[in-house]
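Hi C.,

You asked whether I'd gotten around to modeling the 270-residue construct. I have! Everything is below, sequence then structure, no commentary in between.
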Amino acid sequence: MKNKTPKSAGLIDFIRLNKALTTRLLGTDFWYFEKLASTNTLVKKMPAELVLPGLVCVAGMQHAGRGQRQNRWLTAENNALTFSVVFKPAADASLPMLLQLSAYAVVSAIKKHCAVNATLKWPNDVLVGGKKVCGILAESTFIGSELERFVIGIGINTNDAPVSQVGDYAVSLGSILDRCIDHTDLLAAVLNELEEQYIARKTQLKQQLLEINRLHRGYGQLNYIKTEGVLLDGKYKFLGLDLTGYPVFLDEEDNVKRFTKQDIRFEPVS
């Protein structure tokens, strides 16, 4: 971007946010911190009576954010919109599918708010032009075997790439559009879309899954697969995610291969 991002763009104007929100479930409570280690970490460790479904925790700057496999995700002030949302889904809900719906909501919000088309990369990245613009981390807490809370952490590169993701891997919405991204407007757009998709899943999950699969990198193509860091022999056609949110492939002998854990990575054959 040509000019330094003004501090006001990275702040949340809660009066304006409240007017822009159309949600009934999300945003029942807001926490905002100028600086925080990790929104997910804070929300997970707080007592249950303080963390009700619909809570949104926002950080102006994260200095110990986490991604998949505990990768660090650091943000500079004003340059990333980082927040966590608390859900209490029904006991039979597929948590991996809720992660995919959250990623789909981010893609939809970016398209509507910024007129930018994005794609998905399994299991939790949103890409623009093949570069990461958003990461999502889903975590759960349980009391015994009962789900207590389901936390979706979202980090969107807005006005610069995170300091931990410099180079060719990451991109920001601001650099794509060559303008400053207002965090208040973008947060409202994502929360509105996230609630819409969360509610719609009860009656429209199959249609949502079709849209999600179309957005996934490598869909309908031959892919190389790594599981637990080991490259599998052969090439596998990615058939898409099933209704539980896990990927399904066809091997070279036309056998269906399903994977039911997130420690799998696949790349389209170039």
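If it helps when you're writing up: The CA atoms of residues 18 and 31 lie 14 Å apart.

Thanks,
B.
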